[in-house]
Amino acid sequence: MPLPSHEVTRLLAAANEGDAAALDALLPLLYTELHALAHRQRQRQHGPATLNTTALLHEAYEKLAHADGHYANRSHFFRIAAQAMRQILVDYARRRLAVKRGGGVDAATFEDGGFVPDTRSEEIVALDEALGQLAQLSARQAQVVELRYFAGFTLPEVADLLSISSATAWRDWAAAQAWLQQALGEA
């Protein structure tokens, strides 16, 4: 069961005022919700190019626990969690592509059975780059995509997190998808 929003906001406010114990108390309470986000993200990914749910969760959890940033409220916390998951997945994809392209490892041949296409990593990196371009045009549309794609939130949840109407979230999602499809199609 999710922690009540007002309790999250209270603990975040205490953490922002320097109460390290408040953040230490908050993160374990939000662990279940963060795990659900990581699980939804993992379900969106297919094949070996992505981290498993537990690895993604623990890396995001570490980023959030050791961040020096201030979280205004529950919505802000989960937007930051979505950004952390995006960064982790993109970094992981880039590392996989570096290894694929040589990265200090002996080249494998088809005969060795070592050739495995890594298109998923390439797609994640390309999406990240396109999303950066979209953010310059519409920061909110980019946030909608980040929350939907990298954190697995539903559009009603995205609307709540961004304090926009569901209709606006749907419009932003549709417009962002169209823009990204065109940008990625050209890449």
Blueprint of the fold:
Layout: H1 5-16, H2 20-44, H3 53-65, H4 74-100, H5 119-137, H6 139-150, H7 155-162, H8 166-186
Helix pairs in contact: 1-2, 2-3, 3-4, 4-5, 4-6, 5-6, 5-8, 6-7, 6-8, 7-8
Approximately what portion of the residues adopt beta-strand conformation?
Answer: under 5%
Rounded radius of gyration (Å)? 18 Å
Structural class: mainly alpha
Order of helices and strands: HHHHHHHH
Question: What is the end-to-end distance?
Answer: 42 Å
What does this molecule look like?
This protein is an all-alpha fold. It has eight helices and no strands. The chain has helices at 5-16, 20-44, 53-65, 74-100, 119-137, 139-150, 155-162, 166-186. Helix 2 (20-44) runs antiparallel to helix 3, helix 5 (119-137) runs antiparallel to helix 6 and helix 7 (155-162) crosses helix 8. The longest helix has 27 residues, at 74-100. Mean pLDDT is 77; it is low at 104-118.
What is the structure about, briefly put?
The chain is mainly α. The protein is built from eight helices and no strands.
Tags for this entry?
single chain, 187 residues, mainly alpha, 8 helices, 73% helix, globular
